[in-house]
Structures are given as structure tokens and as C-alpha cells.
């Protein structure tokens, strides 16, 4: 995980990569291109006067697991001069709510063996674990690794220590007991992206901050008149519920 040296902001990197990583991708995708900024050091800060996300109590994650999620996603998409980050957009709420969906239980997945964890990734997912299990086991292993390295759980570390561990998770350098650390990191990153850019009906993208960042019109009935103009779309995005940014 190299530090940021080319003058481009983390938001620029995010915009370049939001369409590049499939849901099962396990590669270097995010942390390696980020440098630590003051905005990422506090998950409870505001961004450019933006309000904090609505109060939410997790229904699936434990309080300790949810503290890890909040601390980690604050680094994956940090608030900066261009707008809110993952915390302000409600990404932790989105991820928790996803744990109570068919996706999290693997209801639509083919989950019969044999499993070949060492097979090339082109052959598809090769573990007998559904997303719920990946999070539960991965969060336990991540905090155990944090305790081993720093004698504290992840959420209690300094921002610099948290980034260092996220680098180790992303690269696979961190040794987990139940699953590869880079697999756990890939799910956390992909779900963070989804929560930042999904419709607010799912709990994330609160205030449609993700859509405003990329100029996406949302669920407007018709915006095709603007597609060929080569102009900035002047109207704010609209959610499925009809809320306007």
C-alpha cells in the first residue's frame, strides 16, 4: 500500500474505480492509493458543514463489530473538501441492513462443494462461506490481529495504526484464522462502495452525497435530453422515494 504522492485526491481515485471492481474481486483496489488525511482520522466529524448521518442502531452486527465497520469505512471513503465520506453518507447502516437480506445468507448462491480455495480466481468463488459468515469471522480475526499487533481492538487504534492494518488486510499480509484477510477486505470495500452509491432507500448514500459527487441524476423519469449535450446536468438527483437532494 503505497502512500499518495501524485497530488490526486482520494475522491479522484474513487471516481476512477467505482465501476472497475466486481463484487468478488480480491485485488489491490483502494487503500494502496490513499494517504491519511485529517478528515479520515475521526469518524464522527462533519464534512464542509454536512450533517452527521441519522442515528442508527445495528440490528445484525454487535456493538463491537459495528465500531470496527465505522472505523474502517471512514478510511475507505473519507470526507474531504469535495464532500461527505462513508460515515456521513450512512455506509455503516447500509452494510448492517444488507446482513438481513438474501445476499448475506447466500440464498441465491450455488454453495455445494467441492471447494478449491487455491484455484485461480477466474474459476469463481471457492469458499463455503456466505457474506454473513465472512463478516462475522473476518471481523473477529481482524480484531484478534489488531490485539496481537497493538494490544487493542481495531476501533481503539490511532488513525495511522488503522490504515496500517487495512493495508495488511488488503495485501493478505495479515494472517487470519478462518479466511484470507484480503477476501474479508474485498467484501468490506465493495459493500462500502455500494453503500455510498446505492439509492438511499437501502440506508446509504444519505443526502444523495454519492450521486451528487458523480453528477448522477438518480431516479428521475427522463434526462435523455441532456445526454448528448456535453453539459453539466443542472438538476439535483432524485431518489426512488421521490426525495430531492
TrEMBL record:
Q: Which domain of life is it from?
A: Bacteria
Query: What UniProt keywords are attached to this protein's entry?
Result: Oxidoreductase, Signal
**InterPro entries under this entry?**
Gluconate_2DH_su3, TAT_signal
- Extract the signal peptide range: 1-42
Q: Which GO terms label this protein's molecular function in UniProt?
A: gluconate 2-dehydrogenase (acceptor) activity
In terms of Pfam families, this protein maps to:
Gluconate_2-dh3 (PF13618)
Provide the E.C. number(s) assigned to this enzyme.
1.1.99.3
Q: What is this protein called?
A: Membrane-bound gamma subunit of gluconate 2-dehydrogenase
Amino acid at each position: 500500500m503505497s502512500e499518495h504522492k501524485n497530488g490526486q485526491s482520494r475522491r479522484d481515485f474513487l471516481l476512477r474505480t467505482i465501476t472497475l471492481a466486481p463484487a468478488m474481486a480480491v485485488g489491490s483496489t483502494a487503500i494502496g492509493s490513499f494517504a491519511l488525511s485529517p478528515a479520515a482520522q475521526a469518524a464522527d466529524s462533519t464534512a464542509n458543514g454536512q450533517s452527521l448521518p441519522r442515528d442508527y442502531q445495528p440490528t445484525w452486527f454487535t456493538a463491537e463489530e459495528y465500531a470496527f465497520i465505522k472505523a474502517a469505512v471512514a478510511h475507505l471513503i473519507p470526507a474531504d473538501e469535495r464532500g461527505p465520506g462513508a460515515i456521513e453518507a450512512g455506509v455503516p447502516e447500509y452494510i448492517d441492513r444488507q446482513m438481513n437480506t438474501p445476499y448475506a445468507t447466500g440464498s441465491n448462491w450455488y454453495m455445494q462443494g467441492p471447494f478449491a480455495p487455491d484455484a485461480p480466481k477466474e474459476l469463481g468463488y471457492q469458499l463455503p462461506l456466505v457474506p454473513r459468515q465472512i463478516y462475522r469471522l473476518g471481523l473477529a480475526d481482524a480484531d484478534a490481529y489488531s490485539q496481537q499487533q497493538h494490544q487493542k481492538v481495531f476501533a481503539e487504534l490511532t488513525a495511522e495504526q488503522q490504515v496500517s492494518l487495512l493495508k495488511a488486510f488488503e495485501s493478505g499480509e495479515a494472517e487470519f484464522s478462518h479466511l484470507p484477510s484480503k477476501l474479508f477486505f474485498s467484501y468490506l470495500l465493495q459493500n462500502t462502495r455500494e453503500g455510498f452509491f446505492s439509492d438511499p432507500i437501502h440506508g446509504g448514500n444519505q443526502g444523495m452525497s454519492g450521486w451528487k459527487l458523480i453528477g448522477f441524476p438518480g431516479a428521475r423519469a427522463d434526462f435523455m435530453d441532456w445526454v448528448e449535450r456535453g453539459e453539466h446536468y443542472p438538476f439535483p438527483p432524485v431518489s426512488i422515494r421521490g426525495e430531492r437532494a
